[in-house]
Amino acid sequence: MPGLISDLLAQGYLPIISSIGFSGSGDWFNVNADDAAVAVAATYNADLLLITDVEAVLDGSGKPLSHLNSESIQELTRAGVIKDGMEVKVRGALSAAKRLRRCVRIGSWNVMNNPFSGTQISE
Fold first, then answer.
1. CATH 3.40.1160.10 correct for 33-121
2. How deeply is 73 buried, as exposed, middle or buried, from its count of CB atoms within 10 A (0-12, 13-18, 19+)?
3. Which residues touch 104 (CB under 8 Å, ≥6 apart)?
4. Which pLDDT tens digit goes with each residue over 34-76?
5. How many CB atoms lie within 10 A of CB 117?
6. CB neighbours (10 Å) of residue 65?
7. Strand 20-22 to strand 28-30: parallel, antiparallel, or no bridges (unpaired)?
8. Torsions phi, psi for 122 (to 5 deg)
9. What is the pLDDT of residues 21-35, one digit of tens each?
């Protein structure tokens, strides 16, 4: 797959990659889209933006958090501020930041227009 993606990029295309996969026997299954994005980012040494339906990870009063690290993630999770689907996304972003050895950003599509929006996740 990296060859195909590289070829498309070299020809000026921006590949859109589905998170639906299939096994060797033809069974279809859902791949975690964030996990797939991490794998592609690692292969291409690319920056990673994990898209969500809110502008950023929010604090207890609903205000966006600009930066989180391992320690603050642990504290906010323990306090119940980061929970449910966002907890999964934040923990995935932290794991990705460690694997990629760079910050990962979580935010809405607006992050593409404003690189300082969203929440930056680092080790």
1. yes
2. buried
3. 48, 49, 50, 93, 94, 96, 97, 120, 121, 122
4. 888 988 899 888 999 999 999 999 999 999 999 999 999 999 9
5. 17
6. 20
7. antiparallel
8. -135, 170
9. 888 999 998 988 888
